[in-house]
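Researcher: Next entry in the queue.
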Amino acid sequence: MTATLYLGYVLAALAALAILASLAFAVAWLRHRGFERGTPQYARGRTARRKAAYAIVVALLLAGLCLTPLCDIALAGGAA
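Model: Structure for this entry, 80 residues:
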């Protein structure tokens, strides 16, 4: 008996990776939060904050796709 790989599993794994990326970007943002405007450290924090927001949006979109009928598409696996 072989296991079937569904698209939902892939989407959920990608959403989990996006959440981990957003956490990493949030840590970078917090590390650079106390610097003055116009410095490279301030720019690093601003970029990390923007990337964290984008990663959260991507994770929510991928998780939202898991609630659609797309999750029932079999990509590989056992015969019926």
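Model: The mean pLDDT is 88.
Researcher: Noted, moving on.
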